[in-house]
Amino acid sequence: MSGMGEFELIAALQRHLDPAADGLGIGDDAAAWAPTPGSLVVATTDMLVEGIHFRLDWTSPRDLGWKALAVNLSDLAAMGAAPGRALVSVALLPGQAALVEAMYEGIGELARLTGTRVVGGDTVRTSGPLVVNVALVGEADPGRLLRRDGAAPGDILMLTGRVGASAAGLALLLEGDPQRLARPEAGPLLAAHHRPVPMLAAGRKLAELGVRCAIDVSDGVASEAWHLARAGGVAITLDVGLLPLEPAAVAILGEVVARRLAVSGGEDYQLLFTAPEARAAEIAAALPEDARPTIVGRVTGPHPGGRVELIEDGRVVEPVQAGYAAF
Amino acid sequence: MSGMGEFELIAALQRHLDPAADGLGIGDDAAAWAPTPGSLVVATTDMLVEGIHFRLDWTSPRDLGWKALAVNLSDLAAMGAAPGRALVSVALLPGQAALVEAMYEGIGELARLTGTRVVGGDTVRTSGPLVVNVALVGEADPGRLLRRDGAAPGDILMLTGRVGASAAGLALLLEGDPQRLARPEAGPLLAAHHRPVPMLAAGRKLAELGVRCAIDVSDGVASEAWHLARAGGVAITLDVGLLPLEPAAVAILGEVVARRLAVSGGEDYQLLFTAPEARAAEIAAALPEDARPTIVGRVTGPHPGGRVELIEDGRVVEPVQAGYAAF
User: Fold this and answer.
1) Are B82 and B100 contained in the same domain?
2) Which of A7, A41, A124, A127 to mutate to test the interface with B (most CBs of B within 10 A)?
3) pTM
4) Which of the two ends of chain A, N or C, has the fewest CB atoms closer than 10 A to its terminal CB?
5) Which residue of A has its CA nearest to B90?
6) Chain B residues with CB inside 8 Å of A38's CB?
7) Structural domains of chain B, count
């Protein structure tokens, strides 16, 4: 963006937000507030724009619907919250009604799998790219909310599932090599890109277990670790060699590229969280099979403003900054 | 829209909605559900697209922000609900950051006046028109929700405030005559168009008084009466001669045009509601000054599928259908 970068814009907009005494505001993956004592409402919204967040020649309308809901569900998962009711707004061109209906089918598919109810929305015309906005309202157990600012010195850093698969799928689409796209290993990578599975059960289990700090991996593990470090005022080391890679990504793209995408590719929608080291085994055993966690780093101490160091083979490779994207 | 009209599209999309046993679904101005016994959450969303719903050469960014929140607050008013928390999503072009910040200021202005808290949102890029989506979550008193389907035969039809002012303001903008735009009477008409005031206090008072049926006037009184008739399975007569006109609209556009805009102009955001005739005086006395109601018609009997007749000088002028727009 010209004149004002994205981070400056978000900072400017935050001045207009009004997190209440009972609310968490924009700093977290979702906003949370207590309408009545003993209850906690969690709400989030994400807007997807054709040509920016998706391409209709790469993404089927059904997959687009799935993903539009999935990215919001992932925000709730990162708070340890349960869905939920969704409101879906769509701006479409004349002639796109059938496409939008197929998109709704994809939303409905994931909604049924996750217990989400699509209760309303808005459908309007546009003269430009297709825009889909999902607003999602869920509930969490008061006192058991996962937050970005809960990392404590001495905690270990853990990650559910594997990372880099979605970015590997996107890399194959960008490359457009039909031979590589036709390889059987491309299947799970494209599926990870088109139909990410939000870690709802894992998020709720982490909250139940008393874990206090988590974020979902939308922008890449290194970038999310930086958000946790900044919110918690701590220094974090992230061991690149420990990141759990997707075997299909290694098979098609090689280990070096697969690892780079695991660090900073994004759109994994796994959960990155911190916990006391003594509880790692217990937490690992309690999480669902598809969310089996890996220890990927450590909170080394307090650090006002936050700090993240990438470690490889025991050496500091690179410090991570806001908006970190390249390896 | 080609191929599929707007109403068919909405009908198609409704099949994918999942109003729960405790919910009202898409048929009303907002969705409502009870997360815990004794509480009722009401949620709504509206998307505004540049070039379709607003023009940046006519609307200041601050006014755009005000209106984007106002149209959602009006949906809550029509349910008798109170705000609320808002999530604001914006798709903007590079270079529009300052514009979007001014828009947030307008949102903040109305938010403070109405006790709404803007707790989060999403800010993304686009290659096309500016898009603003507001999702709003509020609360209502269980058992005291205003609904579209509550009209009963014998009820009178009442309307808060005056209608046609916003459409008159838009007519002046469309006409673009600098002399008419400079007349002092243009001021309140342009203000009605740019800064509609949601009837929140009136909606809550109606709910408190036990009124059961209301809708906000977004598409024009005749069209909204038709929604009430269809939802309630009743026949409604709307007396065009009784509609409370804005004196400034009469002064600039003449009474014939002002009355036509009052019937079908839209964007008034007044509340159209039904009540037993015996309670009209009590209700009128209880409503706030700016929402002083007028009797504008009557529910004449049951009518499966709904029916609305426009009456003028005691004669039926015209039946009203779905999507009714012209006088």
Assistant:
1) yes
2) A124
3) 0.90
4) N
5) A47
6) 36
7) 2
